[in-house]
Structure of DedA family protein:
Amino acid sequence: MTEWVNGLVDQLGYGGILFLMFLETIFPPIPSEVIMPLAGVAAARGDLSLAGVIAAGTAGAMAGNTVWYYVARWLGLARFRPLVIRYGRIFTLTVEELDRVDAMFGRRGHWFVCIGRVTPNLRSLVSVPAGLFGMRLVPFLIFSTIGTACWTGALAAAGYVLRARYAGIETVLGPASLAVMLLLAGLYVVRLIRRL
């Protein structure tokens, strides 16, 4: 995967970074932890500017984030609520919990979106509750862009600074991403057992 990402960045430059980060947001198995540090390495070589790399990565990720936002907005609570009533055990969610989250999101949704953008494995999913609970588009775009720019900027800067040793980034972030994923899976299993 690293060679494929490197090839696209070398051939398409900023457009390749934008495209890859859009794909990463839509299809998470393509990790930003590989894309952005490699783009940072290209900037360190002088092929691209670091600011341009961060801007392209942020724009690509935000394009994907916006797609998920609109999909969830289209679904909406009116369509989602009957699914919770019918399949709540599988979702490990009750209508009462859904209403509580809806109320919480109305008060603190912007912080949830901003912080979620810098959390491994949650980054792509944050758009779903934002759209589902009807967060307004402008605050969603502002706080998503802030969080996304922080994430892409940190990864690109790490690649820029570490250059040939960029693989060290993945060795740190890889286990962190796995830990978050295992924690979320464990919480789901515990909730599922309690529901059943």
About this structure: Residues 2-195 form one domain.
